[in-house]
Design a protein that fits this description.
Layout: H1 6-16, H2 22-30, H3 35-55, E1 62-64, H4 70-78, E2 98-102, E3 110-114
Antiparallel strand pairs: 1-3, 2-3
Helix pairs in contact: 2-3, 3-4
Length: 115
């Protein structure tokens, strides 16, 4: 899940005990009063992680969007996986890897990529 707000990540730390890399946390804290900058850092960081995972050969990506899919679409665009005007991301990762459609039943809670 890409970081899109300080409040959400602080709640995740409090409730779930998740950890945020110190360098990322420092970048976020430096712009904590600028929601757009926090969101940009979060999307950029998540896109970088996805690029690395894909470069290292993972079979797919899975995003928890919690009904806030815009950041995930931006990540898909940065990775070259999403073409505006289409209902789902389209790009092959090789002979047997494809980006998946929305979860069954049209729910917008998650987007996944994989076999």
């Amino acid at each position: 899940m890409p970081i899109t707000s300080i409040r959400v990540i602080e709640k995740a730390i409090e409730l779930g005990g998740c950890r945020v890399p110190a360098e990322l946390w420092e970048r976020l804290q430096a712009v904590a009063d600028d929601r757009a900058a926090v969101r940009e850092i979060g999307v950029d960081y998540a896109a970088g992680l996805c690029e690395r995972l894909l470069a290292e050969g993972v079979p797919g990506l899975h995003f928890y969007t919690l009904n806030w899919s815009r950041a995930t679409r931006e990540i898909y665009q940065r990775l070259g996986l999403y073409k505006p005007g289409r209902s789902s991301p389209q790009r092959e990762f090789g002979a047997h890897h494809r980006v998946g459609r929305l979860a069954a039943g049209g729910r917008s809670g998650t987007r996944s990529a994989g076999r």
